[in-house]
Each structure stands twice: as structure tokens, then as C-alpha cells.
């Protein structure tokens, strides 16, 4: 689907792209080989060097520079080409501030294996391992995960990137990751994660940091891994739904994989203890205010 895209040419929108496709101009090389320019002279003058450059980047597998040319809402078209060298990525942090907070854990899922990185244990290994992939898939990662990682490690992630939050909006799915999961039939209660949210994940990290309780860490990792494992379904779902709007559905539609088993379990007793402590603290604070 990558080489079938024309919306990165200045002045070419979705309707013009559809017109090219239905006129037999289905990919970059077909356009360049066309004896009669299918666009206006002005647009054609911009299209030729753009497509020549894109073909050169494609042949060189320079995915970072090539993906930077594409409109963000069309980033999903990278998936079919790069899905064999792709990582679903999610981080957990000690807070929202990139200046004062730290990364606690990172989970990466490449469609086959799950890799986890823990602050104080193996977090620094992430910098080398992530270089094994050409494409990152995140949810709100352009705004949060990737900038946080870059600031924390003082590095730059130059990968091609699909932010599913923006892709799913094209299909009418808005809101946070958990809400969209529920709308699409993913119930975290089936993964024993129903009560776990971002604030509880932070409390699990604080419990591990203070006491060294591995049950707290494993519960946090179960939550973190669920984020990346569930991204796989969302990515395949979005790709297939969007490809259906093109003439290439038969060629590019993909079979959605079976859900990956999460290798850790949430400790229910520990979770209830933390929730009880949260409730007790809330009641105490309210009584003091009264």
C-alpha cells in the first residue's frame, strides 16, 4: 500500500488519489511510466521529483525519511510493508512531566515476542534493542511515549511511526486506549486487568520501588504488556478497515492474529490491598476537610 499512495504529493487529496487509481495509475512507477501526465502541468511538475525521490528511498529502505514525507493520517499505509520489522511500544512512568519524572517500565511486542525493560534492572538495554526495528506502533506515542523516551535517554528515535490514536480517529474511534478497546470487544477483565489504570500502575511501581515486592512489578508489567499486545489487534483492525476503502483490499488485507498470551499475572490480593489503601486514604482526607 505504501507505493500506491499519492496523497503526499502537494495538492493531491483523497479524491484525486482515488481518481488516479481508477484511471489505472495505481503506484509510483506506473505514474512515472505514464506517457501522458495524468495531472495538471503544475501538479505533474511537483509529482515527478517527489515520486522519484520516494522510489529511491523505498529501494534504499530508508523508512525513516520516507515516512516523514507521508501525512500522519496515512501512516497506516506503512504497516503492510514494515510489519515484519515492527515493534508495538508502550511506556509506564513515575508521572507526566518529562522534565522531572522517569520511565519505570517499557514493553515492546514485535508480533512474536514480548520484551520488557525495568528501571534499575535492564532499562538501558532498550536503547540498543529498539534499533532492531524499522517501525514503531503506539497509541498517543507521538505526543507522549516517543518524546519521553528521547528526553529520558537523551537520544532520538528515527523510526517510521504509526500513532494509532490518529489512525483510529479516521474510523470514528475517539478517546483513550481502554475505551476504544472496549468498543472493539477487548475486555481487560478477561486479562485480569479490569481495575488497573494509570494511577494504579504508578502505585504498583511505588510499591515495588519501596519494598522490592516482585508481585507488584509483575502486576505492573502485566498491565504494561497488555497495552502493547492489544495494540496488535487495533493495528490489524484499522489497517483492514482502511484498506477496504481502496481498490487494493484483496491484495493487502491481513488475517488478524490470535491474541498473545501475557506472561505475567496481576496479583489480585495485592491489587485489592492497594485499592483498599487508596479508599482509606481518600476517606481520611475527606474527613479532615470536613
Any overview of this molecule?
The chain has 290 residues and is an alpha/beta fold. It folds into 2 domains: 2-60, Orthogonal Bundle (DNA polymerase, domain 1); 78-279, Nucleotidyltransferase, domain 5, CATH 3.30.420.10. It is 49% helix and 10% strand. It has 13 helices and 5 strands. The chain has a 5-stranded mixed sheet with strand order 3-2-1-4-5. Helix 10 (198-211) packs antiparallel against helix 11 (214-243). The radius of gyration is 22 Å and the shape is elongated. It starts with 13 loop residues before the first helix and ends with a helix. The mean pLDDT is 91.
Supply database-style keywords.
290 residues; alpha/beta; DNA polymerase, domain 1; Nucleotidyltransferase, domain 5; 2 domains; five-stranded mixed β-sheet; 13 helices; 49% helix; 10% strand; elongated
